[in-house]
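Practice problem: predict the structure.
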Amino acid sequence: AALLQDYEELQRLEEQKVIHAVDDYYDLQQARAGGDEAVGGMASYGQVDVRVPCPVCKSNWLLQNRSVIFCSCGGLRLDTRHDQLTLDTLGESLNTAWQSHADSGCTFAPEFSQQDKFGISALYMSCTACECVQVVL
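Answer:
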């Protein structure tokens, strides 16, 4: 149990390094260009070349460090080690869920949340207007 806690702590510290590296890169790009630039060339800090907005906070970009997809807001942290998923895959799943909801005829914006149910952590989409609930990932 102690070894697992040490591993999880190291993983979180590494995630913080990724967040700081991306923030530094954004600051540098904005200073150079005077605007918002796409992140590129940062593969050594994790997968950040694919831009997927956080569906939970709606204000940050999701990041991937090895098998963990996370947001700096703390509202989303998915370990995809067993699923071999990437930010691309998550982005496609989010788009599919969003489109499915829109195609149902509901005009309200769904909400997204990470929940642990039955010992499994997953990303859920729900809408209070049409009462839909869907597992996104």
